[in-house]
Amino acid sequence: MELWNLATSPVMLPLTLIFGLSIGYWIVVIVTGIDFDLGLDADVDVDVDVDVDVDVDVDADVDADVDAHADLHGAAHQLGPLLSMLVFFNVGTIPLTFILGLNALFSWTLGMFVFKTFPFSGLLAYALYIPIFLVSAFATKLVTQPFAGMVRRHKQETAERHTVLAKFGYMESDNDGQRLSQCKVPTDGAPFLVNVKARPGQVLKRGARVLIIEEAEEGNFYYVENMDENN
Description:
5 strands, about 55% helix, elongated
């Protein structure tokens, strides 16, 4: 009863209503499967050219994530302080509704703690909303940061799948079209590896120069054409 009285007190009621709306939203999403997106993510999205180092090596994945994150922030700074702030808090990478829901949870929890510990009232209590929202925003940033990194890597890998076609590479092992092999594709930075198979009737030797011509229907490898006259 004490918590209920605090949650519905004048100083906490706005935070409680926001948190209640957030809970209601997610209940509707879970029950109906319909995500009523606010449509703001696309406005915050930044089109940047990212040089991605995709490899089976863990270090390469980390480098790619760091490079992409740096390029994204660089582009955001060029487009204004508001966009820079939104990018900093992972808006546009993580769904905005998820970020707002977490922020509502942290704001309500922190508000309950603050107003239970320090029973302020009047304008002073409402002035505390500013630090409460700021702390909650940084807590949301901290929680969403690992997910933002995974989303960025996924976007980078998806982009690579569309840009690897018609590129030349070199076979890392022999391939007769019956099994997967890896092909090293040079880039301006570190080369990256993709899974490939030879076209039917071809046998590719390690080191052969090939052209990536087609993505398999399964989507997990590419067909390559031998471009090396010596093989």
